[in-house]
Amino acid sequence: MKRILFAFACIALISTAPAFAHCGSCGAGDGHDHSSLSSKADIVGVATSAGTFNTLLAAAAAAGLVETLQSDGPYTVFAPTDEAFAKLPSGTVENLLANPDQLKQILLYHVVPGNVSASDVAGLSSATTAEGSAIAIAVNDGTVMINNAKVIQADVEASNGVIHVIDTVIIPSA
User: Fold this and answer.
1) Between 80 and 18, residue with greater pLDDT
2) How many CB atoms sit inside 10 A of residue 93's CB?
3) What is the dihedral angle through the alpha carbons of 90, 96, 98, 102, rounded to the nearest 10 degrees?
4) Is the pLDDT of residue 41 over 80?
5) Nearest to 56 by CA among 96, 25, 115
6) Each residue of 83-127: pLDDT tens digit?
7) What 3-state class would DSSP assign to 58?
8) Domain 2-166 -> CATH class
């Protein structure tokens, strides 16, 4: 399983190298300003440079969505971290990697067409995803919730949209 994820992560890294090559070997939390990176890099480049979305990037590669997330957009991505994927039941990621159509459906459920900032999200009760279903949006005590996922970082800008980091993988209803 780790070899498969590593292979997909390598594919994603290779395909996004031009988007963040100017930043050298930096990673998120390394102490220097990434604002110029995020304003120039696409969603995949920004996610790659953060270093906390390896499973998401591997899944996007397996589902054939890397090119889409590098296109003009704009897109709003509710991006689950590696820790969010780790909370899934054992074997879930492997099963999804073996079923690219289902994986693509789940990943598209994390994408809303258009550029929806945190201030926009806070004023909505739902949004229609690229998958076609609606996600529920709520603000509880100042915390934005997307279905059962908490937004832990908002408004990470990319050249083709915005990323809102979430702590849980959201799954569309059957």
Assistant:
1) 80
2) 21
3) 150
4) yes
5) 96
6) 999 999 999 999 998 999 999 999 999 999 999 999 888 789 999
7) helix
8) mainly beta
C-alpha gyration radius of the chain: 15
Residue 18 in tokens:
């031009």
Q: Give the CA count within 13 Å in the CB-facing half-sphere of 68.
A: 17
Residue 125 is given by DSSP the state S
pLDDT of residue 174: 67
Residues 38 and 161: their CA atoms lie apart, in Å, by: 10
- Choose among 63, 59, 53: nearest CA to 20: 53
167: exposed, middle or buried (Cβ count in 10 Å: 0-12, 13-18, 19+):
middle
| Per-residue pLDDT tens over the stretch 45-73 | 999 999 999 999 999 999 999 999 999 99
How many other C-beta atoms can be found within 10 angstroms of the C-beta atom of residue 123?
A: 10
Domain ranges of the chain: 2-166
Which amino acid makes up residue 102?
Answer: Q
Say which amino acid occupies 57. L
Q: Return all residues near 69 (Cβ < 8 A) that are at least 6 apart.
A: 42, 43, 44, 60, 75, 77, 111, 160
Q: What angle, rounded to 10 degrees, do the helices at 54-62 and 2-20 form? A: 90
| Residue 41: count of CB within 10 angstroms of its CB | 26
